[in-house]
Design a protein that fits this description.
Blueprint lengths: L6 H10 L1 E5 L3 H11 L4 E5 L11 E4 L2 E4 L5 E2 L4 H8 L6 E2 L6 E6 L2 E4 L15 H16 L15 H9 L1 H16 L8 H4 L3 H8 L2 H9 L10 E4 L4 H13 L3 E3 L4 E7 L2 E6 L5 H9 L1 E2 L20 E2 L1 E4 L3 H8 L16 E9 L12 E4 L8 E4 H4 L1 H7 L3 E7 L13 H16 L8 E10 L9 H13 L4 E3 L2 H4 L3 H20 L2
Parallel strand pairs: 1-2, 1-15, 2-10, 7-17, 15-21
Antiparallel strand pairs: 3-4, 5-9, 6-9, 7-8, 11-12, 12-14, 13-20, 16-19, 16-20, 17-18, 18-19
Helix pairs in contact: 2-10, 2-18, 4-6, 5-6, 8-9
The protein binds flavin-adenine dinucleotide.
Protein name: FAD-dependent oxidoreductase
InterPro entries: Amino_oxidase, FAD/NAD-bd_sf, Zeta_carotene_desat/Oxidored
Pfam families: Amino_oxidase
């Protein structure tokens, strides 16, 4: 315990601490803020020309929007607490109530049924469920009510459990679109203990899967933990707020600073930044994004890296898994024994359209697809989902089309920007059920991402725990980011804070 007597000495020690944070996505920024908050000095090295990582701004036809993450889960309250702490509480907005649709079913598309959990219906006879799975699917799903629940052992695979109890139609038309949309993975690969930890026990209590879903959702139309919020003006306000806070605390964020290597000299860490490479080329390459300089609306200008302090007392890796493993390899050899997670490549093409036929939001806030039915994986009708964007867009519509998922590269991967926009327009037309012509497209933006392996994929939890243990065993080093916390800001934010607190404590008391 810290005594009053020890406090000044501790504060002095903290003021002398220098910590390098590698990666300026939300994880790195949250970690840097937690280090700076005790008076230590954090230097964030970010390879791109703007901080934020998967939370990034896009621009087309003079309109700014979220090109990556567009919301945060309310679950746990961590992101909301951070938003409030940064003084951004006034920007919090709810999505419009339109709800999503599912496409790739006979008849084209239908609203995603209300209620349910991970797409599993509470009542297979509900009209909105029947509309998607048909009478055959409904009768098959009803068998779930007759079968005794498995009481010895339980299914860890979401897909296996649903197929066994409710059949293929529920699995493919309801559960798979949701799991592909939320986790970028097929339900067969989803670990129930992570995605819905209480479901197996509820199934044993209730005697059926639909009964378990009813018990867990309490009959509510919204699944527990499914609520999301956004920020008026876009999620990048969170990034700007974090960067401003870090700088206010006397620490710094160095953009356009790709870390090439990490060396050790006794207790000190030496961060080697490749300042020789073209900053703008690096930035675009690392972010996997194509955009012209005129389109670049990043809020943090690129800075010189020549005066970067290179010796640090500790280092916190907050980059993607492949980069973190490469930089840590000489220092954490035990990581070699931990299998790397597969990281789906995702592309988002955002279209700004003149399309009065979309004024009525024909597919609510967007569309999830039955796997294999369309080239695109999902579509968000952003101006139907977010009122702030609708106001900014005036009569225009913003639609974002997602490509790629676990085990399947995005169909846009080999295309140039024009061809990718043309494909996105064709997919949008099919998914929205509205004829959209190239002449209606006022602008487009394309962003590429390598997503961390979703935390709910089978085996991911064990791999993450093993990787974290290997890293924690090496003094002076920490690691965070979606590959260790699980994807999604609701998981990334608390993990980054906890890991920064662990590292700063270890450095202060060594
Ligand atoms: C398209 C998309 C949409 C999403 N939508 C949502 C959503 O709506 N809600 C939600 O909660 N979550 C969403 N997510 C997930 C969420 O955005 C991520 O889990 C989270 O932002 C990851 O943060 P991170 O800091 O761990 O990683 P990243 O954001 O990937 O940041 C890692 C950073 O490290 C940098 N870096 C890499 N190598 C180096 C190097 N050598 N030197 C220096 N820097 C380096 C990268 O440039 C990057 O900025 C979405 C993700 C994607 C891809």
């Amino acid at each position: 315990m810290t005594t009053d007597h020890a406090a000044p000495e501790l504060a002095e020690r903290a003021a002398r601490l220098r910590v390098a944070v590698i990666g300026g996505g939300v994880a790195g920024l949250v970690a840097a803020e937690a280090i700076a908050a005790i008076g230590a000095h954090a230097t964030v090295f970010e390879s791109a020309d703007a901080a934020g990582g998967a939370v990034r701004r896009g621009e087309a036809d003079g309109l700014s929007f979220d090109a990556g993450a567009e919301s945060f889960a309310v679950r746990g309250g961590h992101v909301r607490a951070l938003v409030e702490d940064l003084g951004l509480g006034g920007l919090v907005v709810e999505p419009e109530p339109g709800g999503a649709w599912v496409a790739g079913i006979p008849g084209g598309a239908a609203p995603l049924p209300k209620g349910g959990l991970l797409g599993i219906p509470a009542n297979p006879f509900a009209e909105d469920v029947r509309r998607v799975i048909g009478w055959n699917g409904t009768w098959r799903a009803w068998l779930d009510r007759l079968r005794p629940p498995l009481t010895i052992g339980h299914d860890r695979s979401l897909g296996r459990l649903v197929r066994k109890r409710m059949g293929d139609r529920v699995l493919e038309r309801l559960v798979a679109p949701v799991s592909t949309g939320v986790y970028s993975a097929h339900p067969d690969d989803i670990d129930l203990d992570v995605a819905a930890p209480t479901l197996n026990a509820a199934l044993t209590r209730a005697g059926s899967l639909s009964g378990a879903v009813t018990e867990l959702t309490g009959g509510s139309e919204r699944a527990p933990g499914a609520a999301v919020q956004g920020l008026s003006g876009g999620m990048t306000a969170l990034v700007d707020g974090l960067v401003a806070r870090i700088e206010l605390l006397g620490s710094e964020v160095r953009t356009a600073s790709p870390v090439e290597a990490l060396d050790r000299d006794g207790d000190a860490w030496i961060v080697r930044v490749d300042s020789g490479r073209s900053l703008s080329e690096d930035a675009a390459g690392d972010r996997g994004e194509t955009r012209s300089p005129a389109e670049d609306v990043s809020s943090q200008p690129a800075r010189s890296t020549t005066d970067a302090p290179t010796r640090f007392d500790g280092v916190l890796l907050a980059a993607d898994e492949a980069t973190a493993r490469r930089l840590l390899a000489p220092h954490v050899p035990a990581l070699d024994a931990v299998a790397a997670g597969s990281s789906p490549r995702i592309e988002i093409v955002t279209l700004v359209l003149d399309a009065p036929a979309l004024d009525a939001a024909p597919r609510g806030s967007g569309v999830l697809t039955v796997p294999g039915s369309h080239i695109a994986k999902a579509l968000t009708h952003s101006t139907a989902k977010w009122a702030w964007l609708r106001s900014a867009a005036g009569s225009r519509h913003v639609v974002r089309v997602s490509f790629g998922s676990q085990g399947e590269d995005p169909a846009t991967a080999g295309l140039d920007d024009d061809a990718a926009a043309t494909l996105a327009l064709a997919e949008a037309s099919a998914l929205l059920g509205v004829d959209l012509q190239p002449s209606q497209m006022r602008g487009s933006h394309r962003a590429r991402f390598v997503q961390a392996q979703p935390s709910a994929v089978l085996g991911a939890a064990e791999r993450r725990a093993a990787a974290a243990a290997a890293i924690a065993a090496v003094p002076g080093v920490g690691a965070t980011g979606a590959w260790l916390s699980g994807t999604g800001l609701a998981q990334v934010v608390p993990h980054a804070k906890a890991e920064a607190e662990r590292l700063r404590h270890a450095l202060l008391w060594r």
